[in-house]
Structures are given as structure tokens and as C-alpha cells.
Amino acid sequence: MEMKKISLELGNRAPEEVTELVFDNCLCVNGEIEGLKDTFKELEFLSMANVELSSLAQLPSLNKLRKWELSDNIISGGLEVLAEKCPNLTYLNLSGNKIKDLSTVVCLFFFFFLLLFCFLFCLF
Description:
Blueprint: H1 3-10, E1 20-22, E2 45-47, E3 67-69, H2 81-85, E4 91-93, H3 109-123
Parallel strand pairs: 1-2, 2-3, 3-4
């Protein structure tokens, strides 16, 4: 994803003020997340659909991120970083990626368990 696209999305806002970013169809350089820094402290929604993302290795800490659209990319693994980098993530769309082995998404069990726990706790 080009820095130019990030600048356009930001407009006159500081990264610390941004709660939502959409980079759909903006191709990533070498399949990596580039230009997205941990200065986006208030980011709650991120959409990166169809950007040819193959790796989450460069993922910055996004502690307030709750919803992430990652559909139609070429991700096949490396999802374990999500628990550390995005601890409040409650929705993740990985449809249309290259995940072929169920063990790749086992690390995401934590998120599903947490959602289930919150759902049950709120009912009683």
C-alpha cells in the first residue's frame, strides 16, 4: 500500500485521531503491510480487501482495532500475530484467502472463545 494512499485517507487528520481506514483494492508492495504505523492508536475499523496482502509480519500494534476486513487476499498463515498486535479484535473477515490448513486458524480460536464468553456473560 502506498504512503500516498495513506496520506489521502488521512486528509487533514493526525494518525492519532483516525478511527477508520479503508484501503480496498490498493495493492501492497511485496505483499506486506507498509506505511501503517502504531501511531494509529484510535483505529477501530480497517478494511484491506483485495490488496494482494500475503503477510501480517509487518503489522503494527493496533490495540483498539475491533473489525478488520481482509477478504480476497493471498494470506496463507502467520495469523498468530493477531492476538498480540490486535488484542481487541472481535471481527475478522478472511474469506477468499489462501488458507488451506485448519491449523492455520487455530490461533484464532482465542478470539472466538472470547466472543462467546462475552456473549454468554452479557445474557446472564
